[in-house]
Amino acid sequence: MKAVAAKREKVERRTDSRKAITRYLEKRPIPAVRGPGNDFYIIDHHHLSMALHQSDVTEAFVRVIGDLSRLPRAEFWRRMAERGCLHPYDHHGERIHPSALPAAIPHLKRDAYRDLAWSVREGGGFVKSEQPYAEFRWAQFFRCRIPRTSVLRDFEHAHDRAMMLARSEAASHLPGFIGIEL
To answer: Which of 89, 120, 155 is the last residue of a domain?
Structure first.
């Protein structure tokens, strides 16, 4: 949850002023799809959403990118997957049924590899992509190449290894890839 901590710091610097927090959030609408029951399913800005929750900020701006509210739930999940608006994996990178995804922001779990992907992006290993779940794809890429024990016990070493991997040909298919370091 390193990205959440960084976002939370930015949020909390602004919470004393309604105008400042509103201005900050206006520039960062949370993209969501309206689904069955008229519920919103966010597809990005999970870190910001968690930071807002932890900071007791109860309102945010939402950018509705699709309305699938009239679909039966099974068809809704199928359409979400077709549109690339679904990432049906748990915090260990294991595929799960969409109904097992966290139903609310407080239920999100820490994924050490998402922390690693965020850290690599912040360090210039790749650029932010507008593609939904781009950092999740980077996390999975690192998950397959860096042992979990390394990420948990020596994050700096794992980060250095991930920075090298991010500039390798093996990463060239990932969103935000910068190029091969020679």
So the answer is: 89
* Distance separating alpha carbons of residues 167 and 38, to the nearest angstrom: 42
d(CA 73, CA 23): 35
- Domain-located, residue 106: no
Helix or strand or coil: residue 180? coil
Is 50 domain-assigned? yes
- Per residue in 111-130, is it b (16+ CB within 10 Å) or e — as a string? bbbbbbbbbbbeeebbeebe
Domain of 142, in residue numbers: 112-171
Residue 182 lies in a domain: no
Q: List the one residue out of 106, 118, 111, 116 whose CA is nearest residue 96.
A: 111
Q: What is the pLDDT of residues 3-58, one digit of tens each?
A: 899 999 999 999 999 999 999 999 999 999 999 999 999 998 989 999 999 999 99
